[in-house]
Design a protein that fits this description.
The chain is mainly alpha-helical and 208 residues long. It has a domain of 104 residues. The protein is built from six helices and two strands. A two-stranded antiparallel sheet has the order 1-2. Helix 3 packs across helix 5, helix 3 packs antiparallel against helix 6 and helix 4 packs across helix 5.
Length: 208
């Protein structure tokens, strides 16, 4: 053999090249990205098994059926409980707390100011008491109706036990306008009590 001459038998054939190494760089046929491509993992699919109790498909290597709670290993049904979504309040206000709060502040300031101006006038007190009875009656009726809309139990308790109505308005209703009405009536009632005490303590000897 001449120097520099290469025997054809010593050349590797293309068929002898290991194609497994090259095939590792080829994209997968099923559309799933190769490892290291950053693709998302495929969703869990059914394992082909079905529940012996309800015949619903069982996914993956699960032992407990997600439909009926049947345990394939123990042959018993596990107790399952469906979680209820939180009940949507039908009496709540979606306009924010600022309008009711401003209404409460302005009305309370106006009432207290007018009361101070006519503090020692029994006739003005009588008119104020009449207005309070009308407003409080309307407020009570509104609160009871809204409580019944939120739930029968809330309505019954608010009807027969007024402290529960106060609790429901401020801690369960989520309605800023009901809170404002309750607050206004509280301010008016408190002012009237103080005014009655003052009128009685400062009454003239012969009465008003």
């Amino acid at each position: 053999m001449l120097a520099g001459q290469v025997d054809d038998d010593t050349l590797p054939l293309i068929d002898d090249v290991d194609t497994d190494f090259l095939s590792s760089f080829a994209p997968a046929d099923d559309g799933v990205p190769a490892s290291g491509d950053g693709g998302a993992a495929p969703a869990a699919a059914s394992s082909g098994r079905t529940c012996m109790s309800c015949s619903q498909p069982i996914f993956g290597d699960a032992v407990v059926c997600m439909h009926c709670g049947y345990n394939a290993e123990s042959g018993r049904h596990m107790r399952t409980r469906k979680m209820k979504a939180p009940k949507e309040k039908r009496t709540g206000s979606d306009r924010g707390i600022w309008p009711p709060l401003l209404t409460f502040v302005l009305f309370s300031a106006l009432y207290i100011g007018l009361t101070i101006m006519r503090w020692d006038d029994p006739a003005a007190f009588g008119l104020s008491a009449l207005g309070f009875m009308l407003v409080s009656s309307l407020m009570s009726l509104t609160i009871i109706v809204c409580a019944f809309l939120d739930g029968i139990l809330h309505g019954i308790l608010s009807l027969i036990f007024w402290p529960y109505a106060i609790y429901w308005v401020f801690f369960r209703s989520g309605n800023g306008w009901l809170m404002a009405m309750m607050g206004i009536c509280t301010v008016v009632f408190s002012t009237m009590v103080v005014r009655v005490v003052w009128l009685v303590a400062n009454a003239p000897p012969g009465g008003y």
